[in-house]
Amino acid sequence: xxxxxxxxxxxxxxxxxxxxxxxxxxxxxxxxxxxxxxxxxxxxxxxxxxxxxxxxxxxxxxxxxx
Length: 66
Prior knowledge:
mainly alpha, Eukaryotic RPB6 RNA polymerase subunit, 3 helices, globular
């Protein structure tokens, strides 16, 4: 079964696969805690799937603090 969006396309949106996992986990937690999805077709999807689609569609941005 193919995943949408693909892992390769998601990794291109961030600097590493580790950042991708962390960002998706943090956003998934926000969605679980009640924040509204930033994508239109989120109904019936699980929080991690929504988070990954938001990252793919550039709805989520991040910065590193030093």
